[in-house]
Specification:
Strand order of the largest sheet: 1-2-3
Helix content: 40-55%
Structural class: alpha+beta
Radius of gyration: 31 Å
Number of domains: 2
Distance between the termini: 94 Å
Number of strands: 3
Order of helices and strands: HHEEHHHE
Largest sheet: 3 strands, antiparallel
Low-confidence stretches: none
Shape: elongated
Number of helices: 5
Length: about 160
Amino acid sequence: MNHRIYSLLANFAAGLLVVAAIGCGPKEDFEFDELDLTPAQDELIEFSLGKYVIPVPLLRSSGSGDGVKRNRVEFSFALHALVTSDCKKQLAGQWKRREGKLRDRIILICRNATIEELQEPELATLKTHLTDAVYAELGSNCIRRLLISEVKTRKL
């Protein structure tokens, strides 16, 4: 019986030795390790599309049968496009030519927004409509994403 135990222990020890030898071998390079050392593929730059202060009319039903009450809020924000550095010059030229038309579209979109859209945490619906307008005027090949910052809403 002791011989069996010694034999089992010897086999177990040999197995541990093989596992330890494999674990201590040369380190394998994984594909993702190289990605940590590479620079970012696209360096994005913020391109300002202006600051906006827009009075937005709000329609609310009074519920008492007296009709519709009108109210307004002032919605202000700064709009930026994230672009690659090689597209910045091209976008600047297009912005210079189409700034007035794009500003009109942005103002119209905001004035037609509902109070719910203006109160969304990330302004997702509004940002979608603004992105469509910006792409239509400036093209979508250079613009990666829109940023809305300095958002403020106040009652008028």
